[in-house]
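Hi W.,

Here's what went into the run:
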Amino acid sequence: MRRKGLVFAVLAGLFAAALLPAAGAYAQAAPKRIEVAAKRYTFEPGEITLKKGEPVVLVIKSTDVAHGIRFRELNVEVNVHAGATGEVQFTPQKTGDFVGHCSVFCGMGHGSMTLKLHVVE
Ligand SMILES: [Cu+2]
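Here's what came out:
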């Protein structure tokens, strides 16, 4: 009888060991991906809303020339080659409205190529 109990304990231990890594992976679920298309001289969508403290991956896909995005106040920047995709992961730590600017000169309208970011609680 004691032997059965021991076998049970070992099996329970193995079971728990098998489950724990899975639980850990679940807790670190992949951050939300937000895709934004970049083309002369707009980002589409032009506005995004994020939650404070929630990690995100901002995916910028250029459909023409090289672009980039920089949110100076958030220390977030990524450049994208022509026709390519670039991504940057960050976690907004403060609420408010931020304006990101294209960080790679892309032509006459470059200065007005912006992406609005709202960070909410
Ligand atoms: Cu530009």
